Automatic annotation (TrEMBL):
<keyword id="KW-0378">Hydrolase</keyword>
<protein>
    <recommendedName>
        <fullName>Uracil-DNA glycosylase</fullName>
        <ecNumber>3.2.2.27</ecNumber>
    </recommendedName>
</protein>
<dbReference type="GO" id="GO:0005737">
    <property type="term" value="C:cytoplasm"/>
</dbReference>
<keyword id="KW-0227">DNA damage</keyword>
<dbReference type="InterPro" id="IPR018085">
    <property type="entry name" value="Ura-DNA_Glyclase_AS"/>
</dbReference>
<dbReference type="Pfam" id="PF03167">
    <property type="entry name" value="UDG"/>
</dbReference>
<dbReference type="GO" id="GO:0004844">
    <property type="term" value="F:uracil DNA N-glycosylase activity"/>
</dbReference>
<keyword id="KW-0234">DNA repair</keyword>
<feature type="active site" description="Proton acceptor">
    <location>
        <position position="65"/>
    </location>
</feature>
<comment type="function">
    <text>Excises uracil residues from the DNA which can arise as a result of misincorporation of dUMP residues by DNA polymerase or due to deamination of cytosine.</text>
</comment>
<keyword id="KW-0963">Cytoplasm</keyword>
<dbReference type="InterPro" id="IPR036895">
    <property type="entry name" value="Uracil-DNA_glycosylase-like_sf"/>
</dbReference>
<feature type="domain" description="Uracil-DNA glycosylase-like">
    <location>
        <begin position="50"/>
        <end position="211"/>
    </location>
</feature>
<dbReference type="InterPro" id="IPR002043">
    <property type="entry name" value="UDG_fam1"/>
</dbReference>
<dbReference type="GO" id="GO:0097510">
    <property type="term" value="P:base-excision repair, AP site formation via deaminated base removal"/>
</dbReference>
<dbReference type="InterPro" id="IPR005122">
    <property type="entry name" value="Uracil-DNA_glycosylase-like"/>
</dbReference>
<comment type="similarity">
    <text>Belongs to the uracil-DNA glycosylase (UDG) superfamily. UNG family.</text>
</comment>
Amino acid sequence: MDLAIDQSWKPFLEKEFEMPYFQNLIDFVNHEYEHEVCYPPQEKIFSAFNHCQFDHVKVVIIGQDPYHGPGQANGLCFSVTDGISHPPSLINIFKEIETDLGTPYPKSGNLERWAEQGVMLLNATLTVRANNAGSHQKKGWEVFTDSVIKAISTHQNEVVFLLWGGFAKKKATLIDTQKHYILSTGHPSPLSANRGLWFGNKHFSQTNNYLASKGKRIINW
């Protein structure tokens, strides 16, 4: 596994790289990529970090697992590579942005454009075996990504954390609510959205209102 991660993150994560659990994780991931089809491509495992420098983080969105279909995952949660049809959760995210902000539904599902504005698109598990959701969970990734959330909480100020669904909401315990702003709602998946737990949350306008109130540039969603 290529540990090419943006230099801005290294002071906060280098200790993790040296921990026994992380060495075991590297061995597991390397073995999986060698013997199985896995996603995202190895060079994109740390895309969330490489498209959003540590000192630029303004918003954190927490996903659970990369997409496990061919060509979908690009290392950013909920995002897909250009030219790939939008998965159901991403469609519902874009529909909510349409109604919340009055902006047209975008052609591209590649969310690098968000990341480069300071949106950290962090999956709790950064890799997955093809067509096998959750196959790389509980191998060490969650320990690592929890440490990422804690580092942002500790060393940054006035970050918006968007916690969508039960899994993401559990991460609230890692976040200092005295310094940061948490917005929680249901998951954008059809299962949750069709039960009235997603649409109308207005997280995107609320995020921008908060950023503007702190003198920060808003996100062009």
